Amino acid sequence: MTEASTLVEEGARRLSRSPAIDQWPADRGTIEAEALLAHVLGLDDPDDLDPDESVDARRAARFRALVRRRAGGEPMAHILGYARFRDLELIVRPGAFVPRQSSEFLAEQAVRRLRRRAKPVLVDLATGAGPVALAVAHEVPRADVHGTDLLDVGLRHARENARALGLRNARFYRGDLYGPLPGRLKGRVDVVAIHPPYVPKGEIEDLPLEIRGFEPVEVLTDHSEHGLDLVERTAEEGWDWLRPGGWILIEVSPDRARPVKGVLQRHGYREVRSTRGWPDVTRVVVARA
């Protein structure tokens, strides 16, 4: 028998030393070790772990096996089978972009702009497994939410999660950016949100193994030299879909915020600024039509 606290410390040491994992935040190893042990023990919340609990050899071995998988770069969501995003627990399997905690700020920015509208409309481009679209549909029940993506796998996850969560106000379409949207939405969209694949094609190999080794390349890069092709198209085509005064929200890394602002300004958007929330590893560039 081994105490839970001892196993967590052991797992955290291994995870914090793994070069395959993006070591942000600083205590990520501990957070993930606690989540893995809670999973093994059948607990819904790592906060329910009792550090003094004795863990039998069978479950300790299972925990160590999961730690090895995670230390090799396999995403937590693939190991657990789900990801938590704001107040939602989303089913996640390999083949779709893993919902990121950093994208919760994008969802928050969208919710803030939709809550006070009588019949709000959101379009979430490159929606993947739909975390932003589903969070908005959940938090703004009267919102008419639409997500688009090129990859079938992510869309299957999005639809499955919408059904599991009972969210009838979220619809998902396969296609390129605005292309598959119903024509009735033209000129009526309050918010367009996107977390685009913005990594320049020459920088894919610089990403941590947990990203470049387990995510589809299509969700990481638009295959351009500068990573701004989809941002350009989102801005240019957005004029056909946004209502006057509607917003475009683009999630990027801090080093991409300035060039993204430049794209939006060139396309005639106003009130362009880079917003910063928690966590500090992301920015949401906002602009108004």
Please provide a written account of the structure.
By secondary structure, the chain is of the alpha/beta class. The protein has 2 domains: 2-73, Helicase, Ruva Protein, domain 3; 94-288, Rossmann fold, CATH 3.40.50.150. The chain is 36% helix and 20% strand. It is built from 10 helices and 11 strands. The protein has helices spanning 4-16, 28-41, 57-71, 76-80, 104-114, 131-139, 152-165, 209-212, 229-238, 257-266, and strands at 2-3, 54-55, 82-85, 88-91, 121-125, 144-149, 170-174, 189-194, 242-252, 270-275, 283-288. It has a 7-stranded mixed sheet with strand order 7-6-5-8-9-11-10, with helices on both faces. Helix 1 (4-16) packs across helix 2. The longest helix is centred in the N-terminal third of the chain and has 15 residues, at 57-71. The radius of gyration is 20 Å and the shape is globular. The model has no long low-confidence stretch (mean pLDDT 94).
